[in-house]
Design goal:
Blueprint lengths: L6 E6 L3 E2 L32 E3 H22 L8 E6 L2 E6 L2 H20 L2 E10 L5 E11 L8 E3 L2 H17 L11 E10 L8 E3 L9 E10 L3 E10 L3
Antiparallel strand pairs: 1-9, 1-10, 2-9, 3-8, 4-5, 6-7, 6-9, 7-12, 11-12
Helix pairs in contact: 1-2, 1-3
Length: 243
Amino acid sequence: SRSLSPTRCLCSGLSFISSQPSFPSSPATSPLLHRSSARKTHTMSTANNSITLKGSADIVTEFFGHGINSILYQRGIYPQELFERTKKYGLSLLVTTDDSLKAYIADVLKQLGDWLVEKTVKKVVLVVASSASSEVLERWQFDIQCDKSADHTTVVQKPEKEIQNEIAGILRQITASVSFLPVIDEPCVFEVLMYTDKDANVPQMWEESDPKYVKKAQEVFPLRQFSTKIHTVAAAVMYRNDD
C-alpha cells in the first residue's frame, strides 16, 4: 500500500573514526548543532506509570543514548579505556568519556528528541563501515512506530518498571551480540541515519543520505522491542557474512 507520509533518509554531518590503530584527538569536523549540557529528563509522573508525549520521547531518547554507546563499546569501535560504567535499567552499562564523541551523540539525541515529539521520525540506523573502503559492515536498525493521534494532552498508563525491563532486554542482546557477529578487525567509522517524514523540520547539520545497506552476503538478526504505548521501538542488526 502507498504510504501517506513519504520518508527520507538523513544522516548527520559527521562520521567518527574508530581508534584502530590510533584514536584522533578530535573529529575532522565539529558538530554544528548547539550542544546542551547534560539533559535532565522527566519521563514519568510521580505515580511512575503516567506517560505524556514528551515523556515518551524522553524515554526513547535516553534508550538510544545507551544503545549507541553500547554498540560502539561492544563492537570494539572505540577502545575500552574511553568508556566508564554506569547503572541504568538494572544493568551495568558503558558510556563514553571522550568529549567530542559525547558532544556528537548529544547533538544526535537532541534532534531525535525533537522529531519524536513532532512524530516525524520513523527509523534510526547506526551504520558501521570500513574507514578504508567505506563498505558497510553492520547496520543496526531501530524502527519507530508512533501513535499519530498523541498530542500534548495525551497521557497513557504503563508501569515504569515494565518499560525498563523491555529496554534492558534489548541492551542485553546488544551485549550478547559479540557471540554471533563477525569480529571487526579493521579501522571503522560510524554514522547515524534517521528516516523522517518529508515535512520534518531538518537543521543544517543533517543532509539527505542513501540508506547505506550491507552489501554482499547479509544476515539479519532481529532483536527485541519496547513500547511506551505512544512510541514503539523494534530493533534488528544486519551484518556482512563472508562465510
